[in-house]
Each structure stands twice: as C-alpha cells, then as structure tokens.
Design goal:
single chain, alpha/beta, five-stranded mixed sheet, 7 helices, 28% helix, globular
Length: 221
C-alpha cells in the first residue's frame, strides 16, 4: 500500500473575498485535555478551565464567515476515553452555537478515524490549505526550498525549537487566549515581526520527555 497523498485545498484571496464575509484562523484549542493528575482523578481527560471562554469568542462569528481551524481541537486521549456517543455530545456542546463555515486542517491530535465527528459539525477536512503564497498547516513544514512562500502554522506552542524550521518564513499562531485571528496579510506580517522579537529561542535537547518540556514551559493547562 502506497503513502496517501496529503489532501490540500488551493484557494486565492480573491476567491475567499467573493465567497465569505470574513476569514479567521485559529489553532491548538485542546478543549478536552489530558489530565496529568491521573493518579488522583479517575478520568484521564478533562474540559480545560478556560474552555468556555475560548468557545464564546467564536460564537460571535457570522454565518457568512469562514473559520480555518489549524488542528488539535482536543487531545487525542479524548478519543481513547470517550465512546462515540460521548464524543458527539461533547462536540455538539462546543460547536452548536458556532454558525460560521468551518475548515479543519488535521493536527497530530485529530485522527483520521474521527473525521466523521468533524463532518457531523459541518467541517471540511484537509491536511493543508494554500492561499496564494501562504501555506497553512498544523505542524510547521520546511519551505526553505520554496521561494516566496510563507508558512502559517500552530503546534509549536510558541517555541521556536520545539519544531526545528527557519522562523523567518514561519509564523506560529498559537496564543494562550486562542483568539480568532483575521486572515489578513498585514496582520500576519505584523504578528511575524512580533513573533521574531518575542520567541523563546532555546534548545530543548536537555528536556528528555514531553512532561519535562511542559513543566519547563510553565504554562497552565
């Protein structure tokens, strides 16, 4: 069996402007996350403490808007612990009042086996979206040989060396508030400048496990 080709959606800014009122990007909600206190609490996943606040921001989007979610809506333990009925119910609660058009760029926590769940909520599902010279993915990809392209992604959670790619052509859109980011080149360029100024530029080779990395990062889950 051969390797399946990535499913990529090719668009232009002109097409987006004609089809949608506004376009927004978001990534790495992790609304249901792994509970790291599993020795005390019986459930290995929990709804994140600021989950309702994150969701409320997207309920303000209009039906004519487009939301491009760049992956990792929940942690993958969500699919392991909850059966399909519970998964569907949880996603209904998350998306029932988010009425805009929705595209999911599948992340590393979004298994192919859960496509039915996203489709049930009206998502179109892709592995990447290309809009003119902007390549939108979940994980950063190496575009060093592709002149003129700009990779907008998530996954790195604000750390340059968590995923080793040249940051000059890459923008990690992760932020703690998970706000909807307007898909506007001027806004993305400004965010890239801020990203280069503020990036935590260290190597994590001394951190042997993911738990050590999360502990070092010091960010609340």
């Amino acid at each position: 069996m051969g390797i399946e080709k990535p499913r990529v959606l090719y668009l232009t800014h002109e097409i987006l402007e004609k089809k949608y009122k506004r376009v927004f990007l978001t990534v790495d909600w992790h609304i249901w996350i792994k509970d790291r206190d599993v020795d005390i609490k019986p459930c290995p996943v929990r709804f994140r403490l600021d989950g309702e606040k994150i969701i409320t921001q997207y309920q303000a989007l209009d039906e004519d808007d487009l939301l491009i979610h760049m992956g990792d809506i929940v942690d993958d333990e969500f699919y392991e612990f909850f059966d399909k009925e519970m998964q569907s119910g949880c996603f209904d609660e998350i998306f029932q009042d988010i009425k805009c058009h929705k595209i999911l760029i599948r992340g590393n926590n979004d298994p192919v086996s859960a496509d039915w769940l996203y489709e049930e909520q009206g998502f179109e599902i892709y592995d990447g979206v290309v809009v003119d010279d902007i390549v939108i993915t979940h994980m950063p990809i190496d575009i060093s040989m592709l002149n003129g392209l700009f990779n907008v992604h998530g996954h790195s959670h604000g750390h340059m060396h968590y995923w080793r790619v040249p940051y000059t052509k890459h923008l990690d859109l992760w932020d703690t508030a998970r706000e909807p980011i307007p898909f506007d080149r001027a806004i993305l360029d400004k965010k890239l400048d801020e990203y280069k100024d503020n990036i935590i530029d260290i190597s994590h080779l001394h951190l042997q496990t993911k738990d050590e990395f999360m502990s070092w990062r010091g960010k609340p889950l």
